[in-house]
Amino acid sequence: PGRIEGGEDGVKDTAELEGLLTTPEEAQEFIDTGIDFLAPAFGNVHGDYFGVENIKLDYPRLDSIHRKAKGQVQIVLHGTNEFPPDILQKCIKSGVTRINVNKLVLHKYNAYVEENTGKVPLTELMEKGTQLIQGLIEEHMDIIGSTGKA
């Protein structure tokens, strides 16, 4: 329900997204179809925000969707590029139980590969790149409070 605007290669203007945001009623209709996970649109976008100041999330909307969905489905967060720890934590407090990440855990890897492709052996490139991803995953597990949980 709703629509998470943007794309992985860029973001459209989000100023007029109100009509595309998920309502609690739409969430319930979607839940009634038998889904297990719900990824609501509450101002989040796929791709880049082009600065944290452009992240405009409607937390009261997310809270109301969570109240409607509680005990029925897991709330999934898409569109996390550029989210600092405080925004991730606020989303969790508003009911998010699954966070899809992209650049949050890949940006160091992408920069390393871009800078070192053809300059170091492939196995070294892959090993170092994997270590960079693992480090950011571990950091974000600490941020969202999932470290040590299965």
Overview of the structural elements:
43% of the residues lie in helices and 7% in strands. It has helices spanning 24-31, 59-69, 85-93, 103-116, 122-144; strands at residues 37-38, 74-77, 96-99. Strands 1-2-3 form a 3-stranded parallel β-sheet. Helix 2 (59-69) links the parallel strand 1 (37-38) and strand 2. The protein starts with 23 loop residues before the first helix and ends in a 6-residue tail after the last helix.
Strand order of the largest sheet: 1-2-3
Distance, first to last CA: 29 Å
| Strand proportion | 5-15%
Profile the largest sheet: 3 strands, parallel
State the helical fraction: 40-55%
Quickly give the structural class.
Answer: mainly alpha
Helices, by number, come to 5
Number of strands: 3
Which segments are poorly predicted (pLDDT under 50) over 5 or more consecutive residues? Answer: none
- Mean pLDDT figure: 90
Radius of gyration: 17 Å
Bulk shape: elongated
Give the SSE order as H and E letters. HEHEHEHH
Question: Tags for this entry?
Answer:
mainly alpha; metal-binding; three-stranded parallel β-sheet
Concise structural overview:
This protein is mainly α and 150 residues long. It is 43% helix and 7% strand.
Task: Record the SSE blueprint.
Blueprint: H1 24-31, E1 37-38, H2 59-69, E2 74-77, H3 85-93, E3 96-99, H4 103-116, H5 122-144
Parallel strand pairs: 1-2, 2-3
Helix pairs in contact: 1-2, 4-5
Family: Belongs to the class II fructose-bisphosphate aldolase family.
Pfam families: F_bP_aldolase
Pathway: Carbohydrate degradation; glycolysis; D-glyceraldehyde 3-phosphate and glycerone phosphate from D-glucose: step 4/4
